[in-house]
Amino acid sequence: MMIGGLTSILDTTVFAAACGLFGLLFGSFLNVVIHRLPKMMENDWQCQCAELRGEEAPAQEPLSLALPRSRCPSCGHSITALENIPVISWLVLRGKCSACKAPISFRYPFVEALTSLLAALAAAHFGFGWAAAGSILLICGLIVLTFIDFDTQLLPDSITLPLLWAGLLFNLFGIYTDIQSAIIGAMVGYLSLWSVYWGFKLCTGKEGMGFGDFKLLAALGAWLGWQILPLIILLSSLVGAVVGIGLILLAKHGRDVPIPFGPYLASAGLLAVFWGKELTQLYLHLT
């Protein structure tokens, strides 16, 4: 019995380590998505606007997630394979470009390490199977959305909508919840924030949040079911309020400057992925 238990622990540890390594490598790609996807969207919008005006599309350097190769934004130095090893290269280079010594943002190794840590945690939490694979997919999507929203206050449909459909697909087989709860979760997630948006706009004449927030909460509802949505809304609102007040008081953040809500939804969604049922039970017990 003891040998079987040790074998199970060893298998889980090896699986978690493998997923952590995958997360480390894939985190490097997530950095590319975070950096380039908003620029690709902007280029596309410029081309569409030019087409509507009957003008020629502006001359633009071809940009995709694969091309061109990563390079230093200061001097244009192409990043070599040895300079692109997740976390390690940043440490060896001491956070500076090897050519011009311009600083390299700490965000790059942070995203890589965060993806690795959360992927390993998902593997250890769910064990080998589709639940771990799906949770890692969701984690990667939430990480990308968080940092893009911080930078641009955008939550791209090219990420939120595939996440929504992927959640429904996984729950078609009851991986996280039953399909009925997932479908209701997607609808309630969207309509709840949609209602808040229109209520706020009718009362103040201003837009309180973006449509991307509706779609992100709908995606989380599709993954985790409608039962977990009150917890996600409560946690995200609480964290958002604390951070927002802190920015206004400490950083002199203007009250009229919008604060992205997507990162708080994503953070609450991550907590719900791992400990949603436990946190819900604790909340119900306390109340």
Q: Could you characterize the architecture of this molecule?
A:
By secondary structure, the chain is mainly α. The protein has nine helices and no strands. It starts with a helix and ends with a helix. The model has no long low-confidence stretch (mean pLDDT 89).
SSE map:
Layout: H1 2-52, H2 88-92, H3 107-126, H4 130-152, H5 157-171, H6 179-204, H7 211-224, H8 229-250, H9 262-286
Helix pairs in contact: 1-3, 1-4, 3-4, 4-5, 4-9, 5-6, 5-7, 6-7, 7-9, 8-9
Can I get a quick summary?
The chain is mainly alpha-helical and 287 residues long.
Distance from first to last alpha carbon: 42 Å
Q: What is the overall shape? A: globular
In helices, the fraction of residues equals over 70%
Radius of gyration: 21 Å
Record field, number of beta strands: 0
Q: Unreliable segments (pLDDT under 50, ≥5 consecutive)? A: none
| SSE topology string | HHHHHHHHH
> What is the tally of helical segments?
9
Q: State mean pLDDT (0 to 100 scale).
A: 89
Structural class per helix/strand content? mainly alpha
Biggest sheet features: none
Strand content: under 5%
